[in-house]
Design a protein that fits this description.
By secondary structure, this protein is an alpha/beta fold. It is built from 19 helices and seven strands. A hairpin with a 6-residue loop joins strand 1 and strand 2.
């Protein structure tokens, strides 16, 4: 089975030729890229595997790759290798026009890469840098025009700087554009260069944008329309610890040790109180848990919200509620290796099977540092 050490050993140094046969053997999902077409307007070079190899060649010619540390080079190489890993699964061909699209391939690709790297025991910090780059690898192409939510280029750059290293993102984005045959390539490369310049001017190229304090930061990223440099007044509210992580990752044990005595809002507990099996009438269990949370929030009572909160969408619903009550939120993410997690789950008193957890992996989005006042990561040791 492929593991982190093997992956490390096969990261090519500048000037070396990647061992393509090894990568195709180590990551079977790459084999489908050669049979996956792309829109010829944006990718006249042809299939996804041809594009991927061109991207890596461009990356390895770049100054960032040459100057990178060993860990940075690992992140850069695997972000480039896996940046389009989900295109085969997301390819859609319009039956009338014949146009080819791969909607959502970046978000799905980050999840696919996370699962792959988790099984390979890639260190958490390196894995998440890879996944975060894949999620937004196209953003520097068009960020200077803002986005559909009306967010300014400055806001986008500030937020991204707290989620990843913009130096590495720009290097992958530039390689992604250089590694294709596209009539608009020159203009896109100019946009990427301007993105880099703006990040440098904003003081967050290779470092996170500075904020007056944590509450100002989280308020800004939630759209408060305030200046990063000036403290934003914080209303009094409950202090809430929000747990996140796959089932059997140790959330209950962490809460018992670290937040003993605090009330706990838990969909699992609500499910038990209602006499429901896992997956049965989840709406009723969630409604019961939310009612309990609102009661605690009104009283400004500190508490723990303990559930998987596995996807960004799931967390967003909880966080929106908490911030509406002026809560001060810390988010705690726990993780275990596949071997430990699946073994623990078989030993638990639960109706949730390992097969069900494997299906849950395709919704697995690790919390970002921008989601709460504080985000703590407790990866497997």
């Amino acid at each position: 089975m492929i593991d982190y050490r093997h992956m490390q050993d096969h990261v090519p140094a500048p000037g070396e030729t990647p061992d393509w046969a090894w990568f195709l053997h180590a990551f079977p999902a790459l084999g489908a890229l050669a049979a996956t077409p792309q829109d010829p307007h944006y990718h006249a070079e042809g299939d996804v595997w041809t594009h991927t190899r061109m991207v890596i060649a461009a990356l390895m010619r770049g100054e960032t790759y040459a100057a990178a540390s060993e860990d940075e080079r690992f992140v850069l190489f695997y972000a480039a290798l896996l940046h389009d890993i989900a295109k085969p699964a997301t390819t859609v061909i319009d039956p009338d026009s014949g146009r080819i699209g791969q909607p959502g391939h970046s978000k799905r690709g980050a999840i696919d890469a996370r699962i792959l790297c988790w099984h390979a025991l890639v260190p958490f910090a390196l894995r998440e840098q890879i996944c975060r780059i894949i999620t937004v690898h196209q953003l520097p192409f068009f960020a200077l025009g803002g986005n559909r939510s009306g967010q300014s280029p400055e806001f986008i750059i500030h937020k991204l700087s707290h989620e990843l290293d913009l130096r590495l993102l720009v290097a992958v984005a530039q390689a992604d554009m250089e590694g294709r045959d596209y009539v608009g390539k020159a203009d896109c490369l100019v946009d990427i260069a301007l993105f880099r310049e703006m990040a440098q001017e904003e003081g967050c190229f290779g470092t996170a944008k500075a904020f007056a304090d944590a509450h100002t930061r989280v308020s800004y990223f939630r759209g408060a329309g305030i200046a990063p440099d000036y403290p934003h007044h914080q209303e009094r509210g409950a202090r809430v610890t929000v747990m996140s992580g796959l089932p059997a990752s140790g959330k209950n044990h962490w809460v018992a040790r670290q937040r003993a005595g605090l009330p706990v809002v838990s969909i699992d507990d609500a499910r038990t109180e209602l006499g429901l099996r896992h997956g049965a009438n989840e709406g009723a269990a969630a409604h019961r848990a939310i009612d309990f949370a609102k009661e605690l929030l009104r009283k400004q009572t500190p508490f723990v919200w303990n559930t998987t909160h596995l996807s960004a969408q799931m967390r967003q619903k909880t966080l929106d509620l908490l911030f509406a009550y002026q809560a001060e939120v810390e988010l705690v993410y726990l993780e275990q290796s596949p071997r430990v997690l699946f073994k623990r789950n078989t030993q638990r008193d639960t109706s949730l099977t390992n097969k069900a957890i494997e299906r849950m992996l395709f919704k697995w989005e690790v919390p970002l540092p921008t989601e709460a006042h504080a985000v703590h990561y407790c990866p497997a040791q």
